[in-house]
Amino acid sequence: MVGYGDTIEDLQYLCGGSLISEKFILTAGHCISSRDLGPITYVAVGAISRDDAAADTSKVYKVKNIIKHPEYRPPNKYNDIALLETEKEINLSQFVVPACLDVGDTTNDGKVLATGWGLTAYRGGISNRLQKVTLHKFTTEECSAQWPTHRNMKQGFSPQSQMCYGDRTVSKDTCQGDSGGPIQVKNKKINCMYTVVGVTSFGSACGFVGSAGIYTRVANYIPWIESIVWPN
């Protein structure tokens, strides 16, 4: 979870993220600052619920650097990706393990698992516990039709840098508060591990049947991520 506030006791967790190394979290570019609370100040790892993070401050780490993608220029929706560097190394355990990242060789992305602590319904309340939902990939043609050219997406849907997922028959979606969190698939090579293929970016009114949300395509940004997290 990505937190905003001056002290650990006052934190509000408004976005998600994925641990990718002992000191770096992957999140969305639009999550780096809250209009009311300012920039990200802390991250909580290994927490299943908001209460976990509040009760056990050893899960909470101060953020030292916020690094947005150099081509992320809000309110434009492209390149909605960022990295957070913590002051101290994060203690890894059986419950806190860096995620694998898709480098462009993932072929089983027709169905993904999205996770987060966001709203559980359109105009609903936020979740205290981590939620998960299975989403289905929409075709490039479907995504382009749902997300045509407009002032914040001047080229419309970008299949190179974006993905779109939802459900054509039932109400399943990510929602406000899930931004920055991962969509992931089972790793074919490592048992009980998942590969992050996308970062939750934005959508229309969440939970509408047949409506697809937009996710930043991780594979497109691997060179940028590696240049910061693993420069050598």
TrEMBL record:
Residues 1-230 form the Peptidase S1 domain. GO terms for molecular function: serine-type endopeptidase activity. GO terms for biological process: proteolysis. Keywords: Disulfide bond, Glycoprotein, Hydrolase, Protease, Serine protease, Signal. InterPro entries: Peptidase_S1_PA, Peptidase_S1_PA_chymotrypsin, Peptidase_S1A, Trypsin_dom, TRYPSIN_HIS, TRYPSIN_SER. It comes from the Eukaryota. The keyword Protease applies. Signal peptide: none annotated. PANTHER family: GH06673P-RELATED (PTHR24258:SF136), SERINE PROTEASE-RELATED (PTHR24258). Belongs to the peptidase S1 family. CLIP subfamily. This is Peptidase S1 domain-containing protein.
